[in-house]
Amino acid sequence: MSKDPKDIRGASVGWHFFSNYAHVLVCLAETPDARLRDVAERVGITERTALRMVTQLEQSGILMRLKEGRRNSYIINPSERLRHPIEEHCTVGELLKTILSRNAFNALTQRFENVKRRSQNPFSV
Q: How many angstroms separate the CA atoms of 113 and 59, rounded?
């Protein structure tokens, strides 16, 4: 399942800067109603691993899963701090702002604000 990533020149790369957790977040930030099967394929992990990562991100307050009919939609909490001591001074939003297009980042923050307005503490676990 895992694909060997390519750099901008098309050369094979055996490593990358961001973890698969960050890759999953980017995928869900860009497409909040993506199927985990599609996220897993894009990241190069199994669907089961994607589900485990989403569950852990949800339990940590970074992600919220909303059931919409038979599908899930995902809300990302941009104000949540990153977890490792080296980067804990940064937020999820600051990380995603460097990776996403301006439109995708604005849509992410707007979705979060809309959910926040409707609920006292939407990310309480």
A: 20
Query: To the nearest whole percent, how much of the chain has pLDDT over 90?
Result: 75
Q: What is the mean pLDDT of the chain?
A: 90
Q: SS in 3 state form for the chain?
A: CCCCCECCCCCECCCCCCCHHHHHHHHHHHCCCCCHHHHHHHHCCCHHHHHHHHHHHHHCCCEEEEEECCEEEEEECCCCECCCCCCCCCEHHHHHHHHCCHHHHHHHHHHHHHHHHHCCCCCCC
Is 6 buried (19+), middle (13-18) or exposed (0-12) by CB count in 10 A?
exposed
Dist CA 108 CA 87 (whole Å): 21
Domains of the chain are: 20-118 (1.10.10.10)
Q: What is the mean pLDDT of residues 11-38?
A: 92
**What's the whole-model pTM score?**
0.84
Q: Which of 80, 53, 66, 56 is nearest to 114 (CA)?
A: 66
